[in-house]
Structure formats: structure tokens, C-alpha cells
Please model this.
Amino acid sequence: MIDDGVVVSADGLTARVKVGPRTACCSCSARTFCQGQKGEDGTLLAMNPLQARSGDIVTVDIPEEAYAAAAIRLFGGLLLAVLLGFGLGTLVGGLIHLPASAAGFAGLLLGLAAGGFSSYRSFGRSGRQKIYPIVSSILKKGDVHG
Model:
């Protein structure tokens, strides 16, 4: 999704951009991400590779494809970890003569913990930058440029 807005403040690699709602927001798959990042006044935190400054009118690109791929990777990874943990717990429980239900449940919890930790590390390093809104162009420079 693409939206236009005014840079409220810029700080290094990020900028706070005040955007207005568009009708395209209703059908955007990244809508919940943006609504979670927007402040009460419609301010959105965006990556600022073009070094836009306060007062600039910019175009903000929200990478829907990257957002959808990241969501599938996150939830698919957690589901796979839970299922593998449950299966391994059941197998190990049978080998050491534990009830299958108790061993399966313990494996499920361990799989969930391992999957959650792995997802946290994966998204904590580089995953978030791939789904952040990005200032893709500066439409009009503000007064700060001189």
C-alpha cells in the first residue's frame, strides 16, 4: 500500500510521518501492522533511507507482500515447532515409559517455547526492518532544507 504524508520528525534512519486514512487501507493485508504503529493522531513510524526532514511531504510504501510472507513464516514456524515438539514428546515418552498424553503435552510446551524463542530472535534481528513502512520518495521538500 502507498500513502502520502508529512514528516513530523526525523531521527537517523526513521521518521514519524503523519498520514491520512485512504480507502485502500480497508483491503490492505498490512492494515493491522500500520494501525498498531500509528499514534492516536495518525503518525506512522517509517524507515527513512532518503533522509527526509521535518516538514517534507513524502510517499510511504507499506510492503504488503513482505508483511504477508513474514506472518506466514512466523505462524507457520510456530505451528511446525508445536507439532514437532508434540510428536517428539510422545515418542520419547513411550521410550521412557511415561504416559503418552503427559509426554506429548510436555513436548508441545517445549516445542512452543523453542519456536517462540527462535521466532523472537529471527524477527528481532532483521525481520522487523523488512516489514516496516518505508519513505519511498520525497514529493515536496519542507522549509528545513533551506
Remarks:
- The chain has a mean pLDDT of 81.
- Helices lie at 31-37, 64-95, 100-131.
- The first strand starts at residue 2 and ends at 11.
- The radius of gyration is 22 Å.
